[in-house]
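We now fix the convention by which a protein and its fold are recorded. Here is one such record, which you should read through line by line:

>
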Amino acid sequence: MANVVDNLSQVDPADIGAMAHYLASLGKGEGRNGAERAASGPGRLPQAAGAQAATPAIPSEPGGAIYATVCASCHDGGRPLPLGGSRLDLSTAVADETPANLINLVVRGIPAAAGASAHPIMPGFGDVLNDRQISDLVNYLRTRFAGRPQWNGLAKAVAEARGGR
């Protein structure tokens, strides 16, 4: 993924927006409805609220509370890379058919690329969150940001990501 991010950093932002819109449209009606899709076409992607926005209430579901306390400061904070988080509503990891990529990201994080300050970094939370918390977080990310149903078999997928522990 680092090579993709590196190469995309050289692409015009309008082209990135068009690619993101296209990829998001591949859900063929899943998640967002047609009116929402039309309002967010190329060049009209919703913008992050930024640091000036009011702090949202912590969601009541366990995964939402974990997101609010562990992830939101980077992913909803409006900070630039490398310390600002990627927009999760455009993430293929939360919309993928299997949870493996998202779980690996949560468990291991994204290490800093040597000599590159414009690449995303993310700490791994495998030593901080237990298996249940990772499952709750992954389910929350999936339903909130991809608008898709929760994955089945998360306990097994989390165990595999941790190397069978």
